[in-house]
């Protein structure tokens, strides 16, 4: 009797196992079907995701948070806000500044926001949004330097600039100047502090922000030169992307979000003409 009883118990266990397996498969299939139906039945199409190129050492426009390692800055907040109101998601792709235009031309990225000045040469290679920030170039020297007081005193001097920028173009116009092009903005000021160069030519807000972070051994001298307007760059012919960006910038200006982001990073209200109106309309 004992062998038969054992055999009976074994058959019960096998039967229970088979039933459990069939029930599990049915549940999984039902769940998958339910999920598929729910997704297919969604009336709103999935938002497109645009890859955004930037060079993340250009504080306060784009840089990495020292604690979290996340990208942060004025440009980061702005492009995310544009995406929210214009209906697209953002995926950041960090690269060297001198490679951004090429990445756009080869369609390796969908757009770029990285303190990119709108100039005639770049407009031949890419398309730009309406301007979203007004900047300019300044000279920075060590605080104990009393001989260089502006651009006019840079003749024959050693100057550090970021490679591929309008700062580099401007510095190369200076007679006799020995221009050193470096990849990242912090490297410019390190070279200045170490005595490798006499001055740095760079964008005003970036230089000012660097000094505000406790680098009191650096000072800005002279006037602002070459007033510039930053724009969001897209590959030539990407009219749909460009239209979304421009509409997003206009919306942010109208609803006050642009002013909020601007004040967060620069501590003051933005110029009334930015963004959404061409520079010549400045009051």
From TrEMBL:
Gene Ontology CC terms, in alphabetical order: cell envelope; membrane
Gene: glnH
Subcellular location: Cell envelope
The protein's name in its UniProt record: Glutamine-binding periplasmic protein
Classification via Pfam families: SBP_bac_3
InterPro entries registered for this protein in UniProt: Iontro_rcpt_C, SBP_3_CS, Solute-binding_3/MltF_N
Taxon lineage: Bacteria, Bacillati, Bacillota, Clostridia, Neomoorellales
Matching PANTHER family: GLUTAMINE-BINDING PERIPLASMIC PROTEIN (PTHR35936:SF38), MEMBRANE-BOUND LYTIC MUREIN TRANSGLYCOSYLASE F (PTHR35936)
Domain Ionotropic glutamate receptor C-terminal: 47-268
Domain Solute-binding protein family 3/N-terminal, chain residue ranges per copy: 49-269
Recorded GO MF terms: ligand-gated monoatomic ion channel activity
Family under the similarity heading: Belongs to the bacterial solute-binding protein 3 family.
Keywords for this protein: Signal
């Amino acid at each position: 009797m004992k062998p038969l009883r054992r055999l009976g118990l074994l058959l019960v266990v096998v039967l229970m196992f088979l039933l459990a397996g069939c029930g599990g498969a049915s549940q999984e299939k039902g769940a998958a079907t339910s999920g598929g139906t729910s997704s297919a039945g969604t009336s709103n199409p999935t938002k497109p995701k645009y890859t955004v190129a930037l060079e993340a050492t250009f504080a306060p426009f784009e840089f990495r948070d020292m604690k979290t390692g996340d990208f942060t800055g004025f440009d980061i907040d702005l492009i995310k806000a544009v995406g929210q109101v214009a209906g697209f998601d953002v995926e950041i792709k960090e690269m060297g500044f001198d490679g951004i235009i090429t990445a756009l031309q080869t369609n390796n990225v969908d757009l770029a926001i990285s303190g990119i000045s709108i100039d005639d040469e770049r407009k031949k290679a890419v398309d730009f949004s309406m301007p979203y920030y007004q900047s300019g170039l300044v000279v920075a020297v060590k605080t104990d330097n009393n001989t260089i007081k502006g651009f006019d005193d840079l003749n024959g001097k050693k100057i550090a600039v970021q490679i591929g920028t309008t700062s580099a173009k401007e510095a190369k116009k200076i007679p006799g100047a020995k221009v050193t092009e470096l990849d990242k903005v912090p490297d410019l000021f390190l070279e200045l502090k170490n005595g490798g160069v006499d001055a740095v030519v760079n964008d005003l807000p970036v230089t000012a922000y660097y000094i505000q972070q406790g680098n009191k051994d650096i000072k800005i001298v002279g006037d602002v030169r070459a007033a510039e307007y930053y724009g969001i760059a897209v590959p030539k012919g990407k009219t749909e992307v460009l239209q979304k960006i421009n509409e997003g910038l206009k919306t942010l200006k109208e609803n006050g979000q642009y002013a909020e982001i601007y004040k967060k990073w620069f501590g003051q209200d933005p110029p009334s003409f930015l963004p959404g109106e061409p520079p010549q309309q400045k009051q």
